[in-house]
């Protein structure tokens, strides 16, 4: 992708899954990678460095503004700037409405929505000072269409789209871009936890491509949207879901 070499990218939730695949892809494009996660990201960091780029791994709890600010401050101290933020960190805690607890609902909203707000707010001063920057946030096919038993997750992912479109309108003239990627069901740890019967009898038949997505396919979408090839794309949602119709 054009324009990614030596760009500084922060990826939350990069210890595994889609975030890890995204870290690998940006490293392959020559970017400097900040791998941010609550989990141990040693493995991701090792592989990224093996690709010949500069990288650091930082602990972060996206629900805590102080933790997020510490991550951003360290990234700027290390690399001097922040060109791309990828709000990938996310969780699910499924249940139908009549059984879902307030705690289940709040935990998902705190990570998937408030976490995106916290991280984006923290990088904006640096991006505004630079006069450039790209923020990419993870929505979901579930955020677009909803699904039974995941109201908290769907609400968080739909709300991320609303924030993204609003921020794009606020800051487009200042040189900043904000977009979402809405993945379908992919071969990740999160989907692996779903009952096999649900995946085979519901998810796959509802996906026109007839298969789950692969993490690298989502990473490719993030790389494109962060690149100079996408510099006129702002405030949009890129669905990467194999034409899933849920």
Question: What would you say this structure looks like, in words?
Answer:
With about 250 residues, the protein is an alpha/beta fold. About 45% of the residues lie in helices and about 15% in strands. The protein is built from nine helices and seven strands, in the order βαβαβαβαβααβαααβ. The chain has helices spanning about 15-30, 40-50, 65-80, 100-130, 140-145, 150-170, 190, 195-205, 215-225, and strands spanning about 10, 30-35, 55-60, 85, 135-140, 175-185, 235-240. Strands 3-2-1-4-5-6-7 form a seven-stranded parallel sheet, with helices on both faces. The radius of gyration is 17 Å and the shape is globular.
Broad structural category: alpha/beta
Mean pLDDT: 96
Q: Quote the distance from N terminus to C terminus.
A: 32 Å
The rough form would be described as globular
Count the DSSP helices: 9
Share of residues in helices = 40-55%
The largest β sheet comes out as: 7 strands, parallel
User: What is the topology, as strand order, of the major beta sheet?
Assistant: 3-2-1-4-5-6-7
Percent of residues in beta strands:
15-25%
What is the helix/strand order? EHEHEHEHEHHEHHHE
């Amino acid at each position: 992708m054009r324009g990614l070499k030596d760009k500084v990218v922060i990826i939350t939730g990069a210890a595994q899954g889609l975030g890890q695949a995204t870290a690998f892809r940006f490293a392959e494009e020559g970017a400097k990678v900040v791998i941010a996660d609550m989990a141990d990201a040693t493995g991701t960091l090792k592989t990224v460095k093996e690709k010949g780029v500069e990288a650091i791994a930082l602990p972060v709890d996206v629900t805590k503004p102080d933790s997020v600010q510490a991550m951003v401050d360290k990234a700027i101290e290390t690399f001097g700037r922040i060109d791309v933020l990828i709000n990938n960190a996310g969780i699910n805690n499924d249940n139908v409405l009549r059984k879902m607890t307030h705690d289940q609902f709040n935990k998902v909203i705190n990570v998937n929505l408030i976490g995106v707000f916290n991280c984006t707010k923290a990088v904006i001063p640096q991006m505004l000072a630079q006069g450039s920057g790209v923020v990419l946030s993870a929505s979901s096919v579930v955020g677009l269409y909803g699904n039974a038993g995941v109201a908290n997750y769907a609400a968080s992912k739909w709300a991320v789209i609303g924030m993204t479109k609003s921020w794009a309108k606020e800051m487009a003239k200042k040189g900043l871009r904000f977009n979402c990627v809405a993945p379908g069901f992919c071969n990740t740890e999160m989907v692996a936890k779903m009952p096999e019967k649900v995946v085979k009898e519901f998810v796959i038949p509802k996906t026109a491509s007839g298969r789950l997505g692969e993490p690298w396919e989502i990473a490719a979408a993030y790389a494109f949207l962060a690149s100079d090839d996408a510099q006129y794309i702002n405030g949009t949602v890129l669905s990467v879901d194999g034409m899933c119709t849920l």
